[in-house]
Design a protein that fits this description.
By secondary structure, this protein is mainly β. Helix content is about 5%, strand content about 50%. A hairpin with a 4-residue loop joins strand 16 (about 250-255) and strand 17 (about 260-270).
């Protein structure tokens, strides 16, 4: 991937930061008194406790949308957008988004980590702000296990979903077992976005949707089948695919297809789901893969 000019780095980081602001850790509140069930492990009786202190932990996001000239991005990067990655709330008003992959109108970039601040209202709306100038409005859902997010800067129409990295009862992302052996298994997946040249032999970018099954092997290899509709043209039959994958201690996943496609993603929901963004030129594609067992 190419290196960004310094004047564009903050803008590029900002356009994706909104989507790192998704997913509170409300299940990890204060310890319960002796004899009571630990707070956060049972289903909440009502809305989650919406405070800065309750919002802490790691969350995985995937987002899509569009940017226009009012965003301040260079013309070549305006248009379809997709990103996936991990955000960490500290329970004290600071939020950090890890380095992650994003696609700006088919141009892949690795965006740097950045730390900003957040506030939580009594209505469970989270407002976040970053040094790059990005601001977001995020709405907590599902008892604090997930949230909807959107960027509120001019020139952006960007939103998505984020969910807890660890399953209920895990204190933080560090409790996940992120190894090829732990992720091994069969997953169903859904892909949606845009694709075009040079990755696909088309005149321009067109909508793409697809689904299929991928089996991750303990060896770090994978086998998959996928059926796509590309610009309204359905594949004649499911495509057999294969390749290799890696996962690091921070639960970041890289998938490299033998035919040349590349995806970057993060593990969510305690290892039951992985969200990806394609990093090939000319693509703005998100993929969600979830265990079938």
């Amino acid at each position: 991937m190419s290196t960004l000019h310094p004047t564009h780095r903050a803008l590029l980081a900002g356009a994706a930061l909104a989507f790192g602001l998704a997913g509170p850790a409300f299940a990890q509140g204060a310890a319960a008194p002796a004899g009571e069930a630990p707070r956060g492990l049972a289903e909440p009786a009502g809305p989650p406790p919406c405070t800065v202190a309750a919002l802490r932990g790691s969350y995985v996001f995937s987002v899509r949308g569009f940017t226009d000239a009012a965003s301040g991005l260079p013309p070549a990067l305006l248009g379809a957008f997709a990103a996936a990655g991990t955000t960490v709330y500290d329970g004290a008003g600071k939020v950090t988004i890890a380095a992650r992959s994003a696609s700006f109108n088919g141009v892949a970039r690795t965006l740097p980590a950045e730390t900003g601040s957040y506030e939580v209202g009594s209505d469970c709306v989270v407002s976040a702000h970053y040094p790059s100038g990005v601001s977001t409005r995020n709405v907590l859902i599902d008892g604090g296990r997930a949230m909807f997010a959107m960027q509120t800067n001019p020139g952006t129409t960007l939103g998505g979903l984020s969910q807890r990295a660890a399953r209920s009862g895990d204190a933080d992302r560090g409790r996940l077992r992120c190894t090829p052996q732990a992720l091994a298994g069969r997953y169903g997946f859904h892909a949606e976005g845009f694709a075009g040249p040079p990755t696909l032999p088309l005149a321009g970018a067109v909508p793409l949707v697809g689904n299929g099954v991928v089996t991750l092997q303990r060896s770090g290899r994978f086998e998959a089948t996928a059926l796509r509709s590309v610009g309204g043209v359905l594949d004649a039959q499911p495509l057999p695919l294969s390749g290799s994958f890696t996962v690091d201690a921070d639960c970041a996943v890289q998938m490299n297809f033998d035919v040349g496609f590349d995806f970057a993603g993060s593990v969510a929901d305690g290892g039951r789901e992985i969200v990806f963004v394609e990093t090939d030129p000319g693509t703005t594609l998100l993929v969600r893969a979830r265990r079938q067992d």
